[in-house]
Specification:
It is a single chain. By secondary structure, the chain is α/β, with parallel strands linked by helices. It folds into two domains: 160 residues, Rossmann fold; 96 residues, Hypothetical Protein, Haloacid Dehalogenase-like Hydrolase, Chain: A, domain 2, CATH 3.30.1240. The chain is 31% helix and 22% strand. It contains ten helices and 14 strands. The strands form two sheets. The protein has an eight-stranded mixed sheet, sandwiched between helices. A six-stranded mixed sheet has the order 8-7-6-9-11-10. Helix 2 runs parallel beside helix 10.
Length: 280
């Protein structure tokens, strides 16, 4: 991945690809602003390619992707890339690793949520942490695993356990990409993967430079992606850490932040004049 300083856009450069985190960026549970839909439509009209770029699974993103008319999805924190739901690139865990984790989880009473390309799987359906997460952010109902041997390629796992318990699965010096989004929930992806890596693979596939891409995000797992592209945009509801890494900070999701950024910075990127202000 190119260094952020080398990918920054200059005046006159055009955005050719726009990537969007989902939760907290495009939508808040079932709320997706009409202004966001209109902004995405305008981007497509001007020839900008669109992609989702999320920690969720391809399976979960189908309805949203189709509703927004988006062909591409970088999912599982960069471990899977799909075109209209079909796998184009995938970096899956070794099957033996998944089997070992499920065996260990059975001993310890932990719940694993497993992301495949076409379905989600879970080893314990009545886990209170999973149900709390489902209520808070809207997980779809996964299939109960009957046998680890029947589980397909898995691109991301979520283990519902505390930080003090996670070493049972990742060791003390893990070779994984980790994103702890609750004190009791941890994303685990294959080593070397993150949203920036997945987005770079998509850019290469589409023959687009990282400097010609814009990315929107609000969470810690958006950090690498925001730094890697020419126009990294943090939502107003993002944390201070991400805002410091972003080129621009827009308004919050509930204040039409995507529409504001698209009009103020993306459509202005090809216009003559001075570089627009960094903050909303």
């Amino acid at each position: 991945m190119q260094n952020r300083l080398n990918t920054r856009m200059g005046v006159g450069d055009l955005v050719k690809l726009a990537a969007f985190d989902v939760d907290g960026t495009l939508r808040d549970r079932d709320y997706l602003p009409d202004s966001t839909r209109e902004a995405l439509f305008k981007l497509k009209e001007t020839g900008v390619s669109l992609t989702l770029c999320t920690g969720r699974s391809e399976y979960e993103m189908k309805e949203l992707r189709e509703a927004l008319g988006i062909d591409w999805a970088v999912t599982c924190n960069g471990s899977h890339i799909g075109y209209r739901g079909q796998t184009v690139f995938g970096n899956a865990f070794p099957a033996e690793t998944i089997r070992e984790w499920l065996e260990e989880a059975e001993k310890r009473g932990h719940t694993f949520l497993l992301y495949g390309a076409e379905q989600m799987f879970i080893n314990r359906q009545d886990d209170p942490y999973f149900r709390q997460a489902q209520q808070e952010i809207g997980f779809m109902e996964p299939l109960l695993i009957e046998s680890a041997e029947q589980v397909p390629a898995i691109y991301q796992c979520i283990v519902f356990c505390s930080e003090t318990e996670e070493s049972a699965y990742i060791g003390n010096e893990p070779d994984y990409y980790l994103h702890r989004w609750r004190t009791w929930a941890l994303d685990i992806n294959p080593g070397g993967m993150n949203k920036a890596v997945g987005l770079q693979k998509l850019c290469e596939h589409l023959n687009i430079e990282a400097a010609e891409a814009a990315a929107f995000g609000d969470g810690l797992n958006d950090m690498e992606m925001i730094e890697a592209v020419g126009m990294g945009i943090a939502m107003g509801n993002a944390g201070d850490g991400l805002k410091q890494k972003a080129r621009f900070v827009t308004k919050s999701l509930h204040e039409d932040g995507i529409s504001y950024a698209v009009e103020k910075w993306i459509f202005a990127a090809g216009s003559a004049g001075s570089d627009p202000a960094r903050r909303a």
